[in-house]
What does this fold into?
Amino acid sequence: MNLKQLVNKAKNKNNFADIKAYVNFSGEYLKYIADNLQAIIVSQNENHYQFFQYNKEGNYQITRPINSILMYDSKNFKHTSNEFIKILHNIKTIDKNNQTIRNILNNVTYTIQQTIGAALDGLPAGYSNTARKLNGDLFEHFIRLIIREIGIDCTSGVVQIPVVVDGKIELYMKYQHDLIVKNDDTIKLIGSIKTSSKDRLDKIFIDKFLYHKLTETTTPHIAIFLNDVQRKNNKHKNKYGVKATFLPGHFKAYTIKLNPLDGVYYCDIRPNMLNENVLKNHIKTFDHLLIDDFWKFT
It folds into this structure.
């Protein structure tokens, strides 16, 4: 399969009906880049990030930053993607202390989504907004498929939120959510699924605040992100690096003064999220949601 075929496949959301379709696409992309890249550019400031440069077929375009620690190559992906499905099916009985299992959950998710994003980076420059929207939609759908695979029914869409005053429902208000987990008709969990927190962090915290105020409930609200890095380049010096899009000050302020989210999860977690007090207490890698936290929420 050539780059044009991969890009066209990524453009059609109907090609991603189930997890197997996501895995197959990722395998095809990884097989392609193994022999067909013009270059791999190493980030100047965080060396474990790389950029793929396509050859003439892809007009020498350069992809988003890829975390080489998390991203599998074609050979390793074939094995780990099979393990990924097995782990999801047996999530309740796996060894929670097995770091290899946790890495597979986190890294396969990252690899699959980044192959889609990197393929869409092969679109002409004028289609960047289209690529961003497609990538975001496919990530949301992928995460919901993963959650269903571990045995938790979930949807996205509009919910009718009861506005409660003094214990009585006065009216209903429509609200759009990326992730809704119900038990019968009771909403047990609400989530936001985004490739990045950029320009979205404020809304997620405020959504939880308003929901609880309107409904007089304590329904858990979580956020799932792929990563929070983007390309930074000096065109004059032709040097490429990465910069963080996460806003730690905003996150800390909302967590302390407004309301903390009930869980925040990343595939590609930033170093400060592991080291700074407020951040490390509220942000985890994606495997923690699947192995540990979902069962507490539901």
